[in-house]
Structures are given as structure tokens and as C-alpha cells.
Design a protein that fits this description.
Helix content: 25-40%
Number of strands: 6
Largest sheet: 6 strands, antiparallel
Number of domains: 1
Number of helices: 5
Shape: globular
Structural class: alpha+beta
Strand content: 15-25%
Strand order of the largest sheet: 1-6-5-4-2-3
């Protein structure tokens, strides 16, 4: 299972998984999925961990993710074509995306730990599952 598929299987609401699985798996439809990331509303709220709005800085977010077990390197799924489909160091990836208003997922531990940044105010979430 590729990192993008772990997002679907573990962090998206069940009613959208099949649709997005098809979009992600087909190169011609992937761009449509990526375009939806800016205003993405299909995260399963059970796995969204809120962040302190006063501490939404790359270094702080990286520290939280690292404490939760994130490795040094993460997989990027982003509407920013220069970042999408790349493996990057965690802190570098966060410095590239935080505050840029580009819908992006960072997969830290596939199926267990990720970070999402959308375009809207307050649309920043750690995504975490323990099961």
C-alpha cells in the first residue's frame, strides 16, 4: 500500500474512501483529488488532533509529531506540484507548507500519524490513530 492509500484507509470518512481511492490510483484523476485538498472536508473527525492556534509554527508542529513517533522523513501529498509525491525531511516539509494555503498531507507513519494543512484558517490538523 502506497502512502496515499494509507490516508484513505485510515483518516478519510468512509463514504468518500472509494471515490478518492479511484482518483488517487489513476494518474489522470489524481490532479482532481489534489485540487480538492485546499478545501478538503473528508477527514474523519475522530482522528483529528487540534493544534494550539498560537503555536502553528513548523518547529513546534515538528516537535509534536516527533514526540508522537514521526520519523525524520515524511511522504508529501500536495496540491503543490513541486512537493507532491516526494519524500522529504519532516521539518523541511513543514517549512514549505505551513502558512502557504496549499492543501497538503504529510504522512509520517502510514495509517497511524499524519499532518494536514488546508487553505482555510484553522485548517491544520495532526491525524492520529492508535488502533
Amino acid at each position: 500500500m502506497v502512502p496515499d492509500e494509507h490516508l484513505l484507509a485510515r483518516f478519510f470518512v468512509a463514504t468518500k474512501r472509494e471515490r478518492y481511492a479511484e482518483m488517487i490510483s489513476k494518474p489522470k484523476k489524481r490532479s482532481k483529488f489534489l485540487a480538492e485538498l485546499g478545501h478538503f472536508k473528508s477527514l474523519d473527525p475522530r482522528y483529528q488532533v487540534p493544534l494550539d492556534p498560537k503555536k502553528l509554527f513548523p518547529d513546534h508542529i515538528a516537535a509534536i509529531l516527533t514526540r508522537k513517533g514521526a520519523p525524520q522523513s515524511v511522504w508529501v501529498t500536495s496540491e503543490d506540484a513541486h512537493l507532491d509525491g516526494r519524500e522529504m525531511p519532516l521539518l523541511k516539509a513543514l517549512r514549505e507548507i505551513v502558512g502557504r494555503q496549499m492543501g497538503t498531507f504529510l504522512t509520517c507513519i502510514p495509517g497511524r500519524l499524519a499532518y494536514f494543512e488546508g487553505e482555510e484558517m484553522g485548517d491544520r490538523w495532526i491525524l492520529e490513530r492508535h488502533d
